Amino acid sequence: MKDFDPAALAQFTGTERYYRIAPKFLITDGVKYLADTAGCYWLLDAAVSHLVQLGTADWFVLVRLVVNGSAAVLTLEDGNGRVHRKQTIPYTDFPAPQQVLYACWDGQHWVLMLTGEY
């Protein structure tokens, strides 16, 4: 992990560039910064695998990671509290107690972004 500072995520209010992480999956500048500094490309991989299973019926999905000690729970929700998918992660060194990302379907790609980039 490179010097992860959760407060630094607030600086991302849009994106200048999109980064392809899979054929139909893009991430924003903020999510790339998060993945690089927190060492959590595994989180993006997990979100992508669940989004593939969900399909595109819902164009908006909230991706929530909640850390409890050295374990975590990843949920994909509809934004109104309905859980689409839930995964227990037995070990993580994620450096914050929680992280929320938004996943939006743009008609061709899922775009994963920080909440401030929405």
Return the CATH topology.
Nuclear Transport Factor 2, Chain: A
Mean pLDDT equals: 95
Provide the low-confidence segments as ranges. Answer: none
Gross CATH architecture: Roll
The percent range for strand residues is 35-45%
The backbone outline, from C-alpha atoms, is globular
Helix content: 10-25%
Q: First CA to last CA: what distance?
A: 26 Å
Question: Strand order within the widest sheet?
Answer: 1-2-7-6-3-4-5
Give the number of DSSP strands.
Answer: 7
For the CA atoms, what is the radius of gyration?
13 Å
Give the number of domains: 1
**Secondary structure category:** alpha+beta
Question: Which key features would you list for this structure?
Answer:
single chain, 118 residues, alpha+beta, Nuclear Transport Factor 2, Chain: A, 2 helices, globular
How would you describe this protein?
- The chain is an alpha+beta fold and 118 residues long.
- The protein has a single domain (23-117), classed as enterococcus faecalis protein (Nuclear Transport Factor 2, Chain: A), CATH 3.10.450.
- It contains 2 helices and 7 strands.
- The mean pLDDT is 95.
